[in-house]
Design brief:
The complex is a heterodimer of chains A (313) and B (277). Chain A is an alpha/beta fold. Chain A contains 13 helices and 14 strands. Chain B has 277 residues and is an alpha/beta fold. Chain B has 10 helices and 7 strands. The relative contact order of chain B is 0.17. The chains are: A alpha/beta (313), B alpha/beta (277).
Chain lengths: 313, 277
């Protein structure tokens, strides 16, 4: 068996920006003194004249991105999710969302896999915040391949987009020749009939692992990757729920307002079934290694498996 | 335009402000009236714009960071020919395109604004965007003196000074009053001139109601290289309407029918006096 390749999606973000910089001359990148961490520094090195460091002033950065977009440029504004979606929420809403400007927000270091920095920097609320803004596209890619594809899709789409990236290296799971990324479309990764697992971001890999473990117990799980939280592919979820009758959502995010809530919104309206929402259970994170935190909060394959078993009892 | 023509037009703009706010039974007359001469100069003299082609690529941009004084901007745009003056009476009403605060769907409005502190950042982005693309257009942004209590105003100033954005001109409407009272009593961000200088701005101070000074200031701003300019425009809140002048109670209140009649009579009188000149 070949060794699993691991790449942090923030690395994919920086690399994608650099690669696409040649193809899209209007692409410009902003950061708030975190270029080394968000990996926009990769773009900065290749295109120094198209990179603007705004200093540690995220709210202003969002406004500048808005102004740049009105001049025909395609700005990517980057910071940690905590500051991009949290601190600058109202700027994103009023200066980018309301005028529906062509600004892309590249938010890295999302979720608890920020790790050692602890709760102040572990944003488990960004998907919820960004989802509430009318017209905002919200994406949460699961690996290197998907992250790069999401960046391209964001550029090719006219309007505001929020993309969530992670700090920790995660397995590449979408490296196959027939891989195709379509914004707003869920991906059926594994067919099954007993329970539907809907996952996003780094939890897609955990969901696949859990499905393998469930198989050993004779439970046939269906696994769906939702890389676009908004607009949500309701059809793929409803179709699967109609078949299995039970749904589990998995996300590295609060169970309030993120993927789990979005899935429940869709199912409530179209096909109500019991749903178990896995993620951060209305609590703050803490310091620790990414892997230790993922294990503690049951977001690894083993944890997801255990919680699903409990749900199916 | 001559100063006399500008004065006459500013008086028409003030009538539009009072009429719009009276019709809406809500809105912000005080800060709209204090900036009426600045609005008028910008749209009738200073800026490269075309009401028939509001989105022409090489136009100068204007961002109303103190967005609550939208009646001042709308009245100026209407009098400049962007949309019918009559439409000012639809301000803030359901179904009207004249929203309570500026919105990009309104002809002539370059940026949605009104959540204080945000417009100036967008203006800075517009100025940066022009520079990056080698465009010659200028960007103007009207900021409130109370608004300058928002930290984002100074984040934007820091960036503009750092990037030497000499195509950017900020106008600070310094009328000295905010909702809760005098700036000095609420939480003043003074000294404004020293602060902007510290953020590497070229600073000009003028009487906001003197067209000679306004004209000279914008010329000086245009000629200033390698740094952005701020024009600190000392103004009278409610200027032109006797009972609104220097009264913070008229920050965000609409005149009733009787008050409206007095306000319009005040402005008619000013208009008649200007016609005698």
């Amino acid at each position: 068996m070949s060794e699993v390749v691991k790449i942090a999606t923030r690395e994919s973000y920086g690399n994608a920006l650099k690669e696409l910089g040649a193809e899209f001359p209007n692409l410009v990148v902003l950061d708030a003194d975190l270029a080394a961490a968000t990996k926009t520094g990769v773009f900065k090195k290749a295109y120094p004249d198209r990179f603007f460091d705004c200093g540690i002033a995220e709210c202003n950065m969002m406004g500048i991105a808005a102004g740049l977009a009105t001049t025909g440029l395609i700005p990517f504004a980057s910071s940690f999710a905590m500051f991009a979606a949290g601190r600058a929420y109202e700027q994103v809403r009023n200066s980018i969302g309301y005028p529906h400007l062509n600004v892309k927000i590249g938010a890295t270091h999302a979720g608890i896999t920020v790790g050692e920095d602890g709760a102040t920097h572990q944003c488990n609320e960004d998907l919820a915040l960004m989802r509430t803004i009318p017209g905002m596209v919200v994406m949460c890619p699961s690996d290197d391949v998907e992250a790069k594809a999401a960046v391209r899709a964001a550029i090719e789409y006219e309007g505001p987009v929020y993309i969530r990236f992670g700090r920790a290296a995660v397995p590449v799971i979408n490296d196959r020749p027939d891989y195709k990324f379509e914004m707003g479309k869920g991906v059926l990764l594994k067919e099954g009939k007993d329970v539907t697992i809907v996952a996003t971001g780094i939890c897609v890999d955990s969901a696949l692992q859990a499905a393998e473990m469930l198989k050993a117990d004779g439970i046939d799980a269906e696994v769906i990757n939702i890389h676009t939280i908004k607009p949500l592919d309701e059809d793929i979820i409803v179709k699967s729920a109609t078949k299995t009758g039970k749904v589990v959502t998995v996300e590295e995010h609060s169970v309030i307002g993120g993927l789990g809530s979005a899935v429940c919104d869709a199912l409530c309206a179209k096909h109500p079934v019991p749903v178990k929402k896995l993620g951060m259970q209305d609590i703050f994170g803490e310091s620790g290694s990414a892997s230790a935190l993922v294990e503690k909060y049951h977001l690894d394959g083993k944890g997801v498996y255990a919680d699903i078993k409990d749900f199916l009892k | 335009m001559t100063n006399l023509e500008l004065q006459k037009m500013a008086n028409e703009v003030r009538k539009g402000i009072v009429t719009a706010v009276h019709s809406a039974k809500a809105g912000h007359p005080g800060g709209s009236l204090s900036a009426a001469d600045i609005y008028t100069y910008l749209y009738f003299e200073e800026m490269n714009i075309d009401p028939k082609n509001p989105n022409k690529d090489d136009r100068d941009r204007f961002v109303l960071s103190k967005g609550h004084t939208a009646p001042g901007l709308y009245s100026t745009l209407a009098n400049r020919g962007y949309f019918p003056v009559e439409d000012l009476k639809t301000l803030r009403k359901l179904g009207s395109y004249l929203q309570g605060h500026p919105c990009v769907h309104i002809p002539g409005v370059d940026m949605s604004s009104g959540s204080l502190g945000q417009g100036i950042s967008a203006a800075v982005g517009m100025a940066l965007g022009a520079k990056v693309q080698g465009k010659d257009n200028r960007v103007y942004c009207l900021v409130g003196d109370g608004e300058a209590e928002e930290g984002q105003v100074w984040e934007a100033a820091m960036f503009a000074g750092h990037r030497k954005l000499d195509n950017l001109c900020i106008i600070l409407d310094y009328n000295g009053l905010q909702i809760d009272g005098k700036l000095e009593e609420v939480c003043s961000a003074e000294p404004f001139a020293d602060k902007f200088k510290a953020f590497r701005f070229h600073v000009i101070e003028i009487n906001a109601h003197d067209f000679d000074e306004i004209r000279a200031a914008f010329k000086e701003a245009r000629e200033t290289k390698c740094q952005p300019t701020v024009i600190i425009a000392h103004s009278v809140k409610g200027k032109g309407v006797s009972f609104m002048e220097n009264n913070c109670g008229w920050h965000g209140k609409a005149p009733n029918d009787e008050e409206y009649a007095v306000a319009m009579a005040d402005l008619e009188k000013v208009g008649e006096a200007l016609c005698q000149k």
